[in-house]
């Protein structure tokens, strides 16, 4: 499959804007075309709510196949980021992404050990919270949820839950005693939010105990958050939420105050071009991920549109999941460290960055995202080690000048407002990456029986080497484009590489079941320095045969030393100095073995349009990152204000 060029995308989007009539008349050269101003108060949305009272959010996961299924543990349920975990399903513990720490949400405190075994804990629930039908939220709901997860075989996540939690018991209305299967000093990391959300969703006992949990679709879900589900589209293209009259008895109401929008509409507008057109026309307030070219068009067409920064790089660089290429390390060829390293060294990372996101990406050679906080904790402190790291033959693969070379390349492209000092360059483009060295890559392959014929790499069996790279289709734009850029790089090197795009459900199922050789995933995430919960999925105990649905270690990479380090992390308190030292040793293993190729910190172009609503977070008002698809979203709604 051929790579979609950014010029074609930009031209197509611009043409669509003009043909639709939404772009307005063309102004003089260099002038912005004025966006349609907010209409009078009688303007209505297409779902029948006053526009000025409705916050409209782009729906990241697209059309939902069964818009009546809100059972969070049932296969095929509506995706959490369609407004469910943002507005209805709070977790016991949430994450403050800007400070990189967990905070209490439904729980009033963190688990406290009841003895020295680190298997028995007690925590308390926040008082004053009710379900949206007025019934009080209590410890019995938590105990009931724990019981159905442990006893309902149809719940795939339940198998993981049972491997960690032995029981949860309601001691009184607000006290829960929890027993774990094995020692762990920080169960709040496994059962609370550390990045995107958490699978432990408390359900109302008084509703669910009358149903069979395995088949109950929970079509009219209750809420512990500040909104309730009001309407949904029968085709699964939108979900409308309305502020609770008793919002003060929700988690947000008790903790943070009143949300400002009366309605929140999560809506799927279609392709990127259609989403941008909707933003130009003020039909959407919050956009999910778009490309740099689409942002250029949007900011030109609508003066009320804004991104994280006003100038380069515009996008926020601190998404805590970095992009790269995952390998199924149980498959032939990809179970070989030399082959994985050869594919790494065969890529010109600067050209991959240009093709992926116009060079607006931060390089990451480590299996930890290069967020501002984690760069200071891990990336910069490990720079000296990276410079000296060498293969067994003495070859040193690290290029500490990658970021400076990227700046020079962007200068030739006419990009302005680029960083100038070494510190600024590092902060925007990272500490460096691996060398582009096709000679060394060829040497590693030849060492393992690969040969070249007419510029094409042949497998040790003498067959043309072909790689299919799985990629998202019309979602997660950056990973989608990364796959095409990597395919171009590997094809140039002589490997027949093609991209296979898949819808969200198929893409993730392929990953979990091992139905892939390589894929543009994001296997390394992290928000807080204690990476225990993020990195524990790489433990050997999670490896399953290809074809079986793995809860973790979807790369199927076996390493006893890494697993032992993960076990050690489970015993360390988050502020123990040994945490950082242990993580560094794990990061060294990932470098040496390269079971997945970390490439870029994720840059997110997730603009807002301030025609109807203002007060959104940005680099000047960073009360949170713009993670509209994360569970923290409902806390943003107390900061957003109606435009004057």
Automatic annotation (TrEMBL):
As recorded in UniProt, coiled-coil segments are none
Q: Where is this region: Disordered?
A: 29-50
Q: Does the keyword Signal apply?
A: yes
Signal peptide residues are: 1-25
Question: Could you tell me which InterPro entries the record lists for this protein?
Answer: Peptide/Ni-bd, SBP_5, SBP_5_dom
Keyword vocabulary terms for this entry: Signal
**For the Solute-binding protein family domain, which residue ranges apply?**
106-519
What protein name is recorded for this chain? ABC transporter substrate-binding protein
Q: What is the organism field in this record?
A: Blautia hominis
